[in-house]
Task: inverse folding
């Protein structure tokens, strides 16, 4: 039995290590200072980097988190604390589960129809909205699950002290569940960070340095997609390097949030 | 100082289940009053009606009146105001797991917007001394989580937390039933000291415990209060046959 469990663990880990190893093998050699500081070189010229795409991804993901995290957590709090047993809660839960299953390209189309078409141009906003909406169901449902795991005795303790219900929910229940809620947010973040499809007709991509939220913006997954499909060897190499950087940045961002939020946790608290 | 509690025609329901029927009694100020009875007899529901915790359950319903001193619990005030005057200690120790020992004790005040740090320090120290925990935790107040303490210490922490908001009444719902004998006796000693300052209502399964700590004892059975008298009389010469059967161990 133990042997089977170990085998299963190995099978789970092998693809991860294989992908990561292959990315380092293919991509590390093309990583250099210019990759992080320069925008893409014009067609036909060698060199150039993905600085604009790294920045663009950061901007689009920040927008997405600004939309997905508060709405998702708010929804989770409603489902677990205020709407228990109501029809509205059941409807929200069902909708969130359906939304979670919607293919990412459809989310991109929705953002295209809702934002790009009325604004008449592609923009970072549209990309952020598409990714943000993709984060909502994951954040919402994991927040709900985590809040439901908080023992009722903790809620009663707070209410018994004469703390109003809303205050007890925010300061006690959510705080107690916060490690799990943060994990849920990180999962959602990591999932959308690598999404390409929802960005194709929202953020569109951009060959130049741009921080204008109202204009098309570059993103790592888009840049990788374009470069990988190109006929140039130099671009292929940059695409590999971009993939490596994307994964490293996601791991870095997740670890950073984990570290920051785990500080200040007391001994014996779990 | 504690105040007396006057209960008149109290009825309570869980859904269609009539868990408390026509309860009438007067709980004296600054004494410990024990409520005994078999499981499911309504004694826990009764104390949860005193601080209006019963209605936090969506299917809970109450009629009748309870007066704490001059305050009519179900007419004059909101539940949160009642609960600040009526502290509660639960069956299982339930410190806030993410908070330090200090923050656990200060929680009731802080969450109600009280921020004067110096007097918070004093209140935390006084509450922990009153719950006989100060000596064991004074060096780890802000370093250790409330959840890192032993079960008995956690329960005394919960008592300190309840005392910190300066209540007049302290409700204890089987406070020692999840604890070992040593911790139990510490809790009982504590009840002895605290009843000079607070009106204490303690629900217990343990009849010796009721006999040890309480001046008055009420016997509950099937949602009704069968008998309420001095503890001595209940345990030596009860006037109701059912009380006698219960305390002599014929059922329950």
Result:
């Amino acid at each position: 039995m133990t042997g089977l469990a170990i085998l299963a663990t190995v099978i789970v880990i092998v693809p991860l290590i294989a992908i990561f190893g292959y990315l380092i093998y293919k991509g590390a050699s093309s990583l250099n200072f210019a990759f992080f500081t320069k925008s893409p070189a014009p067609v036909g010229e060698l060199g150039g980097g993905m600085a604009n795409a790294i920045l663009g991804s950061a901007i689009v993901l920040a927008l997405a988190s600004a939309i997905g995290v508060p709405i998702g957590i708010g929804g989770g709090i409603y489902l677990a604390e205020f709407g228990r047993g109501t029809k509205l809660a059941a409807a929200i839960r069902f909708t969130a589960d359906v939304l979670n299953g919607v293919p990412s390209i459809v989310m991109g189309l929705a953002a295209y129809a809702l934002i790009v078409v009325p604004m008449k141009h592609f923009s970072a906003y549209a990309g952020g909205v598409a990714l943000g909406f993709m984060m909502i169901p994951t954040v919402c449902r994991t927040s709900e699950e985590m809040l439901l795991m908080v023992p009722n005795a903790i809620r009663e303790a707070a209410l018994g002290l004469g703390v109003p219900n809303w205050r007890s929910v925010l300061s006690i229940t959510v705080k107690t569940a916060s490690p799990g809620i943060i994990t849920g947010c990180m999962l959602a973040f990591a999932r959308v960070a690598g999404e390409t499809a929802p960005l194709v007709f929202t953020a569109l991509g951009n060959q130049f340095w741009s921080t204008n939220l109202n204009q098309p913006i570059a993103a790592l997954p888009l840049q990788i997609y374009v470069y990988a499909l190109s006929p140039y060897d130099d671009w292929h190499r940059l695409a590999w390097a971009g993939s490596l950087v994307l994964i490293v940045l996601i791991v870095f961002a997740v670890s950073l949030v984990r570290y920051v939020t785990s500080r200040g946790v007391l001994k014996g608290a779990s | 100082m504690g105040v007396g509690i006057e209960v008149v025609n109290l009825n309570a329901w869980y859904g269609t289940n009539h868990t408390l029927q026509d309860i009438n009694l007067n709980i004296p100020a600054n004494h410990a009053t024990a409520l005994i009875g078999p499981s499911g007899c309504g004694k826990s529901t009764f104390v949860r009606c005193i601080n209006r915790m019963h209605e936090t359950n969506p299917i809970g319903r109450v009629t009748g009146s309870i007066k704490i001193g001059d305050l009519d619990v179900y007419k004059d005030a909101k539940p949160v105001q009642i609960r600040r005057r009526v502290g509660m200690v639960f069956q299982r120790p339930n410190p806030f797991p993410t908070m330090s020992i200090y923050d656990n004790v200060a929680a009731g005040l802080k969450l109600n917007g009280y921020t004067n740090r110096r007097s918070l320090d004093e209140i935390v120290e006084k509450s922990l001394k009153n719950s006989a925990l100060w000596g064991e935790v004074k060096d780890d107040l802000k370093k250790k989580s409330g959840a890192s303490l032993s079960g008995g210490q956690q329960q005394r922490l919960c008592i300190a937390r309840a005392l910190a908001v300066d209540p007049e009444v302290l409700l204890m719902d089987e406070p020692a039933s999840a604890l070992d004998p040593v911790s139990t006796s510490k809790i009982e000693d504590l009840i002895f000291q605290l009843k000079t300052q607070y009106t204490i209502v303690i629900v217990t399964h343990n009849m010796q415990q009721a006999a040890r700590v309480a001046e008055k004892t009420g016997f509950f059975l099937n949602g009704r209060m069968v008998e309420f008298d001095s503890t001595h009389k209940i345990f030596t010469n009860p006037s109701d046959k059912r009380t006698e059967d219960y305390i002599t161990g014929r059922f329950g």
Notes: Chain A is about 75% helix and 0% strand. The first helix of chain A runs from residue 2 to 27.
